[in-house]
TrEMBL record:
<feature type="transmembrane region" description="Helical">
    <location>
        <begin position="212"/>
        <end position="232"/>
    </location>
</feature>
<feature type="transmembrane region" description="Helical">
    <location>
        <begin position="188"/>
        <end position="206"/>
    </location>
</feature>
<feature type="transmembrane region" description="Helical">
    <location>
        <begin position="239"/>
        <end position="257"/>
    </location>
</feature>
<feature type="transmembrane region" description="Helical">
    <location>
        <begin position="60"/>
        <end position="84"/>
    </location>
</feature>
<feature type="transmembrane region" description="Helical">
    <location>
        <begin position="263"/>
        <end position="283"/>
    </location>
</feature>
<feature type="transmembrane region" description="Helical">
    <location>
        <begin position="91"/>
        <end position="111"/>
    </location>
</feature>
<feature type="transmembrane region" description="Helical">
    <location>
        <begin position="6"/>
        <end position="26"/>
    </location>
</feature>
<protein>
    <submittedName>
        <fullName>ABC transporter permease</fullName>
    </submittedName>
</protein>
<dbReference type="GO" id="GO:0022857">
    <property type="term" value="F:transmembrane transporter activity"/>
</dbReference>
<keyword id="KW-0472">Membrane</keyword>
<keyword id="KW-1133">Transmembrane helix</keyword>
<dbReference type="GO" id="GO:0005886">
    <property type="term" value="C:plasma membrane"/>
</dbReference>
<keyword id="KW-0812">Transmembrane</keyword>
<dbReference type="InterPro" id="IPR001851">
    <property type="entry name" value="ABC_transp_permease"/>
</dbReference>
<feature type="transmembrane region" description="Helical">
    <location>
        <begin position="131"/>
        <end position="158"/>
    </location>
</feature>
<keyword id="KW-1003">Cell membrane</keyword>
<feature type="transmembrane region" description="Helical">
    <location>
        <begin position="33"/>
        <end position="54"/>
    </location>
</feature>
């Protein structure tokens, strides 16, 4: 039973990384912007968060540093694609490559650095419940904050005027511009908010999930988060569900190894990426369903004067 409780808790922790990044990318895409630079942003944010904790000893300052790094890189991306009308896909790929290379170069000084020991978190009374308590109520507060964030995003997108405007910009920026909304600043704000969440995901990886810094430690999670937005058909609740599903697949490899299942470790390591490919193949079999849920202007440039 303890093994299954550990698997459940690990699944929630691993899913938090994907949920934060995918929710950020969902905000981008609801505004009509595709950012393929999530992997690079998360790596730079992971380094920024780790360095901040090394020098301050505070995980929360590390989270703030990661969010700032993610928002800064996303803002640069936003200026290029929103004002200079560079290709969104090419610019995003360039950002991902830049982030990968820059974090590897700048992070050399932190490879051997150690973080202070993390405090133990537990919700009184609930954490004492057998099996469920250790699995659900002894997790880092950011795990619970992520669930609340998804609920807040649902309320924002579908119950607020600002959310309606954001979705309108993603559906038809020309119409939104015609009735007086500042499409470009709105898109930039969405891109930077999404970048901040990707940055928070990166900082969580390096300061809590695996508290160390190594080159390339995001290990493709930015790309999985991109696929997750499509898998979830651009719905925050489905993003959360999908993130925990992918998190469970990721942790299953360690659970199987711990229980003595004789499967090659390389095969088990492939599971999260294989699951991503299978899901995308299944979804792509029904393009009409994707078009019905996808923001109509996703990936399309906007020219105010046209």
């Amino acid at each position: 039973m303890d093994a299954y409780a550990l698997l459940l808790g690990s699944t929630l922790s691993a899913g938090t990384v994907l949920a934060l990044a995918a929710l950020g990318l969902l905000i981008n895409e609801k505004a009509g912007i595709v950012n393929l630079g999530a992997e690079g942003m998360m790596l730079c944010a992971a380094l920024a968060g780790f360095a901040a904790v090394v020098h301050t000893g505070s995980t929360w300052i590390g989270f703030a540093a990661g969010m700032a790094a993610g928002a800064l890189l996303a803002g640069l991306f936003g200026v290029l694609v929103i004002w200079l009308n560079t290709n969104q896909y090419a610019t995003g790929l360039a950002l991902s490559l830049f982030g990968t290379g820059f974090s590897a170069f700048a992070g050399q000084a932190y490879v051997q650095a150690k973080l202070p020991e993390l405090p133990k978190y537990a919700i009184p009374l609930l954490s004492d419940i057998p099996v469920i308590g250790p699995a659900l109520f002894k997790l880092h507060p950011l795990v619970y904050i992520t669930v609340l964030l998804a609920l807040a995003l649902i309320a924002f997108l579908y119950r607020s005027r600002a959310g309606l405007v954001l979705r309108a910009v993603g559906e038809s920026p020309e119409s939104a511009h015609a009735i007086g909304y500042a499409v470009r600043p709105i898109r930039l704000a969405a891109v930077m908010a999404g970048g901040a969440l990707c940055g928070l995901a990166g900082a969580y990886i390096s300061t809590v999930y695996t508290p160390l810094w190594v080159e390339g430690m995001v290990a493709g999670r930015g790309w999985i988060a991109l696929a997750l937005t499509t898998f979830a058909t651009w719905r925050p609740a489905r993003v959360l569900l999908g993130a925990y599903l992918f998190g469970g697949v990721t942790m299953l490899q360690f659970h199987l190894q711990a229980t003595g299942v004789q499967v090659a470790s390389q095969l088990l390591s492939m599971l999260p990426y294989l699951a991503t490919i299978v899901v995308l193949v299944i979804i792509s079999r029904n393009p009409a369903w994707i078009r019905a849920n996808m923001p109509a202007s996703l990936g399309k440039p906007f020219y105010p004067g046209s």
